[in-house]
Amino acid sequence: MMQTHGEVPAQETVDDASPDESRLQPLIQPWPLAGSIGKTDLGLILAGDGVYVKDALGRSLIDGPAGMWCVNVGHRHPSIADALRDQAMTLTYTSPWYTSNNPARELAQMLADRAPGDLKHVFLTTGGSSAVETALRLMQFYNNVRGRPQKKLIVSRQGAYHGSTYLSASLNGRPRDHDWMDGATELARKLTCPDPFRRPEGLSIDAFEDFLEDEFRTMIEKEGADRIGAFIAEPVQASGGVLIPTKAYLTRMQAVCREHDILFIADEVVTAFGRLGHIFASQAVFGVEPDMITFAKGVTSGYFPLGGVMVSARLFDELRRSNHPDAMFAHGLTYSSHPIGCAVAIRNIELLENGILDHARAIAPYFQERLKTLEDLALVGEVRGIGLMAGIECVADREHNNPLQIDIEVGKRIDRHCQDLGLLVRPLINMCVMSPPLVINKAQVDSVVEILRQGISKTMDDLR
Ligand code: PLP
């Protein structure tokens, strides 16, 4: 059984801890509604330890989503805190343009040793959006240098989330992502979401896989392979609702990419660093060898903002041998290769490989089995998951799995009840997502499931 690291540090409770939508705050929360900018109905979290956080009402809550899929080794790990402090006291920062630093070099080697296939190079960024943006700009640069400036379209899928920078956000495909926002529509193309639960009526799973591959081939025929630069896919669509594709989907899509010289980018911002039991999941879990892998979140377990792109050695070989050795990849971030972030990532990977990955793999089946028992509740259409990520999808009627109306905000309702009972949930429109710290133990899994059962039951009472 994994240990937590001690007590959640005591914190003063705060007078204005209760959510109050009438008070305006200087802090803008991400994804605000126009009519609520500056208002907040969110709880205030003060401290964390292991799988627990403590809020300003003095409640101890299991951190069901591990922050945002990221606090993989758990909160308040002393060894990570030491690495962070030691690096800050050794070298706080040095420019990645005209200097290098030891933690960045060491981390790059560690990542190259662990990435699949020939992903032997890494460009370090500040998070997931900048990692995806870097991968896309690298694809553009690569095709420009190869004399194929027209090969720039990027294919993603409905249900996807790839970030909040302009180009990465253009690839998102969740409800409401594009209602009020602009994007690089001239570059982005979308395929059907490979969600088996919501596949077109009448299609078997095998026929659905055929349909998805055919759709991609048809798109290539229509747009022209010489115009499509990349296909980007989260191996499991995370914030789209933990959507796990059918078994051969990713390998089939990769084969189509190879046939047409389209780069396959696996967006592993969520699935890497232990969430699925491995440092990288693309090959270990899904059998694909991408041309690039983007990552962030779990690489530092959320202790420092860091991300990156693993890049195939073949791409760089081609660039080096091109007719344009002086072409510059004019792209970089002040905080690329940040020494503190890299030192944290190194310690984090060491911790993952010294027991936490084994633990995550061992407890995942228990976590999934126990959550699956919630399917007996009338509001629950499907509980699905893989590794230590799961989604509980609620439906209006179980016979046809019709979706609930968005404004019912069923996920938020369940979250509110669960918080009263000691569990933080990540609410999506019609569902709850679970991705706890990987150090969660069996008793804590039992608590998660029991609280969810009560929270969903109370929500069913509310909706009666
Ligand atoms: N890609 C995926 C799959 C994500 O889930 C996210 C964030 O949730 C991102 C990219 C963007 O990462 P960030 O929020 O660190 O910019």
From TrEMBL:
GO terms for molecular function: transaminase activity. Pfam families: Aminotran_3. This is Aspartate aminotransferase family protein. It comes from the Bacteria. Residues 1-23 are annotated as: Disordered. Its cofactor is pyridoxal 5'-phosphate. Belongs to the class-III pyridoxal-phosphate-dependent aminotransferase family. It comes from Labrys miyagiensis. Keywords: Aminotransferase, Pyridoxal phosphate, Transferase.
